Amino acid sequence: MSGPARVLFRDTRIVAPAGPKEQLLDRVLRTAHPGASWAEVRRLVETGKVSVDGEPERNPQRPVRAGARIEISMTARRREQSSVLPRGAFVYVDAHVVVVQKPAGISTVPYKDEPGTLSELVRAELGTPSGTTQRGRREAPLGVVHRIDKETSGLVVFARTLAAMRALKNQFRFHTVHRRYRAIAHGKLESRTFTTRLVPDRGDGRRGSTDNPKLGRVATTHIQLLESLGLASLLECRLETGRTHQIRIHLAEAGHPLLGERVYSKGFRGTLLPAPRLMLHAQELGFNHPETERPLRFEQPMPDDMLAVLAELRRSSARR
Which candidate, 93, 105, 91, 101, places its Cα nearest to that of 154? Predict the structure, then answer.
């Protein structure tokens, strides 16, 4: 028989510890609950169970000052995510495909019973729920062709027919889709290419690279340095393949984790710079239209939260 379920969190009041600088909320909570995982701490915050100085807080990476009063209330009602997409989220829509600008903080597809995911919001906005009919023909559900991480912002394409989904999946499978990201990483990098074999478990429960040529799948990321920012670098990352967490893993294994990185920053020897979330943005997306085969190319600039971090890094670099 299995033992009793562990109780991770209880109603608790915590005072943020003193230190040379502000600490991130999730780190303060995890220090106070060493048995909890990063995912469990993040979910605690995102479901509205945590307040800071009396105000509810749903951003796990909010910087908190020394002495801040942090309260966990397990009876607090869950605060659901927005039921509508931000204005301007739809970049391109036709009968075959839809391209959407995903905000940071929502998942592309549901995980367990997670509400308010991008696929659900897009389907609701389009008004074509799964299984409806049009002119006597049963429509396919909104087709998930690819996904980006919850904390990553940027462009995502969905298919609106089965034929479009097959065509787009083939383009991703044969690496003919154009994808470029903007990223802010720790340290100073030179332009280079990473090619490794990625496995689901590198030995510590996390995804990562292996030297075994018989394991994993090849992943290639082309990195171009756009701007040196003192303790950080602004990068363009071009994906040749599209493995899970590929950019995050390649940069972290090279000693340059992204700002806001929690999963792959363990072992980083430098100072982790504060960021409100993972500093990664899917800025460019290009593919051939699944019906007409016409090349389509889309670009969305970095969102305000990344621009704010970038501006602060520039100011800090100029003062050095």
Answer: 101
Helix segments in 152-196, DSSP class H: 162-173
Residues 6+ apart with CB under 8 A from 83: 116, 121, 124
3-state secondary structure of 288: strand
Q: Is the pLDDT of residue 209 over 70?
A: yes
C-alpha 102/C-alpha 112 separation (Å) is 20
Task: Provide the annotated active-site residues.
Answer: 149
> Residue 191, class by beta-carbon neighbours within 10 Å (0-12 exposed, 13-18 middle, 19+ buried)?
exposed
- Give the span between the Cα atoms of 118 and 120, in whole angstroms: 5
pLDDT of residue 133: 40
Q: CA 182, CA 154: separation in Å to the nearest integer?
A: 10
| CA 205-209-213 angle, 5° bins | 120
Token digits for 315? 């100011």
- How far is residue 167's CA from residue 287's CA, in Å, rounded to a whole number? 10
Candidates 244, 148, 264, 137; CA nearest to 200 is: 244
- Count Cβ neighbours within 10 Å for each residue of 10-37 and write b for 16 or more, e otherwise: eeeebebeeeeeebbbbbbbbebbeebe
275 contacts 163 by C-beta, under 8 angstroms? no
Nearest Cα neighbor of 298 from 154, 151, 111 is: 154
Higher pLDDT, 156 or 316: 156
Query: For the segment 103-161, what is each residue's pLDDT rounded down to a tens digit?
Result: 998 888 876 556 678 988 898 888 754 444 444 444 446 889 999 999 999 999 999 99
Alpha carbon distance 98, 140 (integer Å): 14
- Which residue type occupies 125? E
10 Å CB burial of residue 182 (0-12, 13-18, 19+) is buried
DSSP string for residues in 79-119: -PPPSSPPTT-EEEE-SSEEEEEEPTTS-SS--TT--S-HH
